[in-house]
Design goal:
Elements: E1 3-11, H1 16-32, E2 36-37, E3 43-51, H2 55-65, E4 70-71, H3 74-79, E5 85-88, H4 92-104, E6 108-111, H5 119-132, E7 136-138, H6 146-156, E8 163-171, H7 197-212, E9 216-224, E10 229-231, E11 237-239, E12 245-252, E13 257-263, E14 274-280, E15 283-287, E16 292-296, E17 320-321, H8 331-345, H9 353-372, E18 376-377
Parallel strand pairs: 1-3, 1-5, 3-4, 5-6, 6-7, 8-13
Antiparallel strand pairs: 2-3, 8-14, 9-12, 9-18, 10-11, 12-13, 14-15, 15-16, 16-17
Length: 383
């Protein structure tokens, strides 16, 4: 058995997502299990090098997890020939410049989405990475959630027959920050810092729809700023300049219609924070983060509209739970494992910067559709 150490410069891991999902539940979890073992006995051992702007936060983070290497000097870290991968989970506005530096340094890339603030920047990053010959990946974690993996199983098995529509609901109430601390960072609500729920979530919906049902052909969106005033991490009030809700209608290849509501100003009355209902000629399914329920054509009841009487039973009880039939690991960790295998063994990989650019494109078109009040076509991007 041979060991292959992969050193990863991890930028932005003092933030919530970078810390919890990428550092702790992915890279450190892989280290704790002894590395990623391949079929031939080779073990890939990821070694993180923490990078950021705050020495106080980085030192505390490194001490908490027993890590020795951290730095506030990104240029020096990228100049280190022992660094194999550059990972970026910074705020969107800071991502393009640092990813370009990593490409110039010849590092493989794994970055959070959106990959850039606009489509032109996202396409440039994809082009530069291709020209440099570096392997590159974009986080598309929703595909690896247990609920959506069960949904994919249904799609690939032909359960739905002809898919007719997809309806998605995502979101929760993010506290304004005055009476209770906000659950999300304040930059999310400032357009000048790359904030906005469309910029954040439309890239997710693009790859979910594209991978499971087909490419998005048109978009019609309405973006809203429901909460105009919020309080930041220091307790100071500020004007929220970015959208906190986005309501989208997407037409997919083959005529499938998808409607997805995204909001940080909604109170949850559903089983999970995100749910997708898929309706087809032969059956329907409702999938969330973890669970997935189905109703086949043969077992579909015949409701009759009667506003004078309560329904005879619970509609939810008429659905069947899809069994796990497998062990599902953390979705972020599952994609990290695939990317490490891609870097070390050149195994197939399709979630690259070019794929990430499609998500940036959809967010950009969503904003434009809302501003212009019309439906827009989604042009196919070059690979």
């Amino acid at each position: 058995m041979t060991d292959t150490t992969v050193r990863i410069a991890m930028n932005g891991v003092t933030g919530r997502m970078g810390h919890r999902q990428h550092l702790v539940r992915s890279v450190l979890a892989l280290r704790a299990q002894g590395g990623l073992e391949l079929a031939d006995g080779t073990v890939i051992r990821p070694e993180p090098v923490l990078v950021g702007r705050s020495p106080h936060k980085l030192r505390a983070l490194a001490e908490r997890h027993g890590l020795e290497e951290w730095s506030c000097d990104l240029d020096t870290v990228l100049a280190d020939n022992s660094i194999d991968i550059y990972f970026d989970a910074q705020i969107t506005a800071a991502r393009e410049d640092t990813v370009k530096k990593a490409i110039a340094a010849g590092k493989h890339l794994y970055v959070e989405k959106p990959t850039a603030s606009g489509l032109s920047g996202a396409l440039e990053l994809a082009r530069l990475a291709q020209e440099a010959g570096v392997k590159n990946g974009v986080v598309q974690d929703k595909l690896f959630l247990p609920g959506l993996r069960k949904l994919r199983r249904l799609v690939e098995g032909g359960f739905f027959g002809r898919v007719l529509s997809v309806r998605g609901e995502f979101g929760y109430w993010v506290f304004e920050g005055d009476r209770q601390p906000a659950q999300r960072p304040s930059w999310n609500y400032r357009a000048e810092d790359g904030g906005g729920i469309a910029a954040d979530m439309f890239p997710h919906w693009e790859y979910v729809l594209h991978e499971l049902f087909g490419p998005v052909r048109t978009v019609q969106a309405h973006l809203a700023r429901h909460i105009p005033r919020r309080w930041d991490e220091s307790g100071s009030p500020y004007d929220a300049t970015a959208d906190d809700a986005a309501y989208g209608i997407f037409e997919l290849a083959g005529g499938i219609v998808a409607q997805i509501n995204s909001s940080w100003a909604v109170r949850v009355h559903r089983d999970e924070l995100v749910e997708f209902q898929v309706d087809g000629t032969e059956g329907s399914a409702v999938a969330g983060l973890h669970g997935c329920r189905v109703q086949h054509r043969a077992t579909t009841p015949g409701p009759v509209w009667n506003p004078d009487l309560p329904p005879p039973g619970s509609f939810r009880e008429q659905w069947q739970e899809v069994p796990d039939n497998a062990e599902f690991d953390n979705g972020f960790k599952a994609q990290w494992e695939l990317f490490l295998r891609h870097v070390v063994r050149d195994e197939p990989w399709r979630w690259d910067l070019a794929a990430g650019a499609r998500g940036v494109q959809l967010a950009e078109l969503g904003r434009r559709s809302s501003a212009e009040g019309r439906r827009l076509d989604v042009p196919e991007l070059p690979r």
